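Late entry, evening session. Most of the bench is empty. Finally got around to the prediction I had been postponing all week. Sequence below, unchanged from the version circulated by S.P.
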Amino acid sequence: MVKFCTKTSLFIFPKTSCHQLQTQSFIPFSVRQEHKNILESRLVSILHGCAHINQAKQVHAHIVRKGLDQCCYVLTKLLRTLTKLDVPMGSYPRLVFQQVEYPNPFLWTALIRGYALQGPLMESVLLYNSMRRRGTGPVSFTFTALFKACSAALDVNLGTQVHAQTILVGGFGSDLYVGNTLIDMYVKCGCLDCGRRVFDEMLDRDVISWTSLIVAYAKSGNIEAASELFDGLPTKDMVAWTAMVTGYAQNAKPREALEAFERMQAAGVKTDEVTLVGVISACAQLGAAKYANWVRDVAEQSGLGPTSNVVVGSALIDMYAKCGSVEDAYKVFEKMEEKNVYSYSSMIVGFAMHGLADAALELFNGMVKTETKPNRVTFIGVLTACSHAGMVEKGKRLFAMMQDCYGVAPADDHYACMVDLLGRAGRLEEALNLVKLMPMNPHGAVWGALLGSCRIHGNPDIAWIAASHLFELEPNNIGNYILLSNIYASAGMWDDVSKIRKLMRAKGLKKNPGCSWVEGKKGIIHEFFAGDMSHPKTREIKQALEDLLDGLKYLGYQPKLSCVAYDISDEEKKRLLMSHSEKLALAFGLLTSAGCTIRIVKNLRICEDCHSVMCGASQITGREIVVRDNMRFHHFRNGTCSCGNFW
């Protein structure tokens, strides 16, 4: 054997194959061909292990010495190795290619692929044209390389022209690999309809063909089309199931995501980390404790428990916090063997949304003492904690430290937190000045925080400034119009209320109804809409609510009529307040879950009247009531709320 050395490795070539060719007078052709094939295979294997250009060059020298400088099979592997090593195509690889008198389609494709990956993209197209002019026909890998390059460049026009070539050349209509890459190209370029047309015309499809479109439909928001495709998929593997679970979760359909995951479990399909994160996200959206514990059990049984898996652990922390159990979230956090910035950030945000500002800041201080560096989400958590607790000066110090101490440049979301912090504390002018001094254009969340603060403190003038910007940034967001209308109504500015409502009608905007859901027996979710009396237990719910309100009156409860932004009679206002969705959910919870904590999730901000009723109900019944609205969590115990009436 001959040893072939480099600085970083030792290659060994069989000497016999070449030595015999030189010393023996006659060797049958079949034997010589066999020796040549052995040498070529060995060279290809060695090239596969090259980790540096010097290694590849020494192998190339050996190729030339052995008379294989025209061997397209070996040289194709050499070009692919040089591409992998990021050697610029225009230098060494191009020279290697130019030495070959009759390059075959695979050698052409190797160079085309190199340019497709490294650029410029048009050079790969020119090479394809040269190949065709020289009478060399493309192979499937030629087209897949070009399609992938078009995907990366988001150049659908060029991709369409290459697609036309597959038709003109012919023979690729039944090529599964070409079809799948073509679907991927159209999808990534935003031409989902074209991708679907390719899919429909494919003679053969595999699970990749189906899953590519399922994922694309889900990401585009067309979860119905994704579901229809999924149902038609003959064999559903883990990737396909995961696509549907995460698709439902990403499209705010948590129940459907959980149902899909249950079907996946029933089918005996293995669960991986990605699937679990998707279904954990669905649980977090739904806020149901039963499903939270079930999903954690599945994770443990799959060997992906939070103790050893930092990704799943971080997701579970977020889930438990959003399900109203910050204690369980912290238990997961404590048991994790490995903690990273996402684990810390999830726990800090969890503390913040539950109003536990001191715990959030203490954990942040503990985090910075480790080698874990805080990121933008970490600071959103601590600033939110300060905002919900009214810690203005502490929040301002943390905001000032972001860039200087931790290298995190404040983004628009951090400015939104600061505007919220100042605004909630009544420092509306200071908040407005901060917005004006922002180094970037304020986005909707910034102006939305200011508008929300104006509602708390009843400032219609600054409210109009914030709302006018929101009307430009989010012209179809009905919530902004309603909030401004309510601010005007609270100030008795009924003419301005009429103008806003007229504007809403002109735009065709319709208010999203208030919706609350509560977890009943066996984990069943019961949903209630404002004013909706269609629940089977409506009569009992109405009676329980009336009894509760009668009891609260003895404690001095008076309906907060200002929460109704309509110029109607007081009796009508009382009737509307009584039918708010969270009150219906509360009454149902009192009826059906004796002695247990009542957990309610609402899609909108809880109004002041309902907040007052929840406080009183926790005092009269001795029950803990947890309400998650679109702002934060409220824990009602013994007549008080964890938010300290600051939300």
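Two things to note before I forget:
The first helix runs from residue 16 to 23.
The first strand starts at residue 2 and ends at 5.
Will write this up properly tomorrow.
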